[in-house]
Prior knowledge:
The chain is an alpha+beta fold. It has helices at residues 5-11, 28-34, 47-149, 154-163, 167-172, 175-185, 234-245, 262-265; strands at residues 250-252, 257-259, 271-276, 279-283, 311-312, 318-323, 328-330, 336-345, 355-358.
Amino acid sequence: xxxxxxxxxxxxxxxxxxxxxxxxxxxxxxxxxxxxxxxxxxxxxxxxxxxxxxxxxxxxxxxxxxxxxxxxxxxxxxxxxxxxxxxxxxxxxxxxxxxxxxxxxxxxxxxxxxxxxxxxxxxxxxxxxxxxxxxxxxxxxxxxxxxxxxxxxxxxxxxxxxxxxxxxxxxxxxxxxxxxxxxxxxxxxxxxxxxxxxxxxxxxxxxxxxxxxxxxxxxxxxxxxxxxxxxxxxxxxxxxxxxxxxxxxxxxxxxxxxxxxxxxxxxxxxxxxxxxxxxxxxxxxxxxxxxxxxxxxxxxxxxxxxxxxxxxxxxxxxxxxxxxxxxxxxxxxxxxxxxxxxxxxxxxxxxxxxxxxxxxxxxx
Length: 364
């Protein structure tokens, strides 16, 4: 079997490095071992290769060092940025907490305000309720005072009006004080005198005679009769009693006095009487009590008519009128009037609550 030169070289094996394709004389390992560096005394490389390697290492070191420096600088910048961001985060957290606290305070203020508004509404409602109760109580108090001062003692008043009073008292007191004293001495109790009722005529006690003696020969300015004066005139006091029982008077609560119109006392014109012969005297009727001239009070006003409820037929006398459905009032003559509403008296009238507006009622 023959071999070619190329095939034998390819199949040959180096005894030094155990590699194929070359012999020991051509082995690169053996050749490298034979190369000696004169600078480092090493083998396997030359001085030129050593210098080139050292330069490469130095360059690599410089590159690595520069890279490390850049990395360090970037790290420092990142640390500074991290510190700045941390401080910013702390500031934002503090601002957020402050805003939360402020919102909580505002919420508390709003809740307190709502609570205060609710309490104010409750207080306002209580105020109006108390005001209404106060009005009702004041009306009841005025009613009781009126009953105690004005409508007490019908029998005693009839007796006093019939008998008369002492002459000295009649001469020393004013007309208004006379009526005040008479009205204060009685005790009327529950009276039904006034609108819708008829009172019994005045009765004089048995055996009663007008006082005479020192008034003998004197003329009365009221009736024109001889033998008594007006203070002891039965007709005069009967007229006063008639007006009293029918509520034809006006009570001034501030002065605590009663006033009767002249028209209720003197219903007949002045008359002439003759005492004898051709001598004539003209007697002019004059009222004992003062007259209250009110332009808006043209009709008779019954402050207490004796009815179970206050009522009027004039709508202008009332304010805050509320309409009512149904209901009738029977007058003293037997006729009936429809109840149209209910309200309270106006400011210029005596203060009364729950006054009925009755159709057809002529007197207040």
